[in-house]
Amino acid sequence: MNKKTKLTKLVLSLAMLGLMSGTAVAEELSGTLAKIKDSGVIVVGHRESSIPFSYYNEKQEVVGYSQDYSNLIVDAVKKELNMPDLKVKYLPVTSKTRIQLLNNHTYDFECGSTTNNLERQKVVDFSDTIFIVGTRFLVKADSNINSINDLKGKNVVTTAGTTSEVRLNQINNRDGLKIRIIAPTDHGNAFKSLETGRASAFLMDDALLAGERSRAINPAEWKIIGEPLSYESYGCMLRKGDTQFKQLIDKTIANAQTSGKALESYNRWFTQPVPPSGVNLELEISPKMVELFANPNDKALD
């Protein structure tokens, strides 16, 4: 066998090895990444009115702090699968529908304002934390309401299907406050109940309350009050046991947080005017968030 023949065989062998290696990589895909690769489509869940996390702007585009993470994850999936032209579809979800629609494979992941807690971990998985909130009340600025004890026997609104609804029911029953709870399906309608006087207070995550206040005709008429009833961590939600997809998502989030990209996103959405009304939410970053960005993790806070 001459040198030329040997070289030709070596090149062919390496080429075949490359093809086999590529096939092996494709076969190693599992869960959501395999689904996306096969279908050529990634379906992204999002919220419609969770200002400033995930909502529609005046052009009906999905924008927000959580959506910034979502966009980074989509880009990471495109790179991982070598599919730069991957088709991206967006699906609006609510607090009540988001888990069911995820688990029946209607969409692939969601970054919005979804709390990572131990109860939900029984049926879904969560990424590294993207935000830490305190659960508080929004009330009229000229009211005499300063804590939950001032709401005894009054109407309080909170969004259905949220951890805030669960927490309010627990405290109401435990302490015999006789609060009448109103629970519409989204944050926008919950705030309308407060604006129209149907409720004396709106219980929700403080950052979301700041977002709803920013949409008011006169934001100065409303104030966020009280010590947090709880602290909660938001994570992007994905199907349970999807280790391969979770690793990709966690790596993407951790890179954004340790590189400073996540801080830029935070400042854009919480310390500067945001659409659609151009109001500044004026929420300086908390020590808990600073610690999170320095040490990304997926811990639930309950």
UniProtKB/TrEMBL annotation:
Keywords: Signal, Transport. Residues 1-26 form the signal peptide. InterPro entries: Bact_solute-bind_prot3 (IPR051455), Solute-binding_3/MltF_N (IPR001638). The keyword Membrane does not apply. One of its GO terms (biological process) is amino acid transport. Pfam families: SBP_bac_3 (PF00497). The keyword Transport applies. SMART domains: PBPb. GO terms for cellular component: extracellular region; outer membrane-bounded periplasmic space. Residues 41-273 form the Solute-binding protein family 3/N-terminal domain. Belongs to the bacterial solute-binding protein 3 family. This is Glutamate/aspartate ABC transporter substrate-binding protein. It comes from Gilliamella apicola.
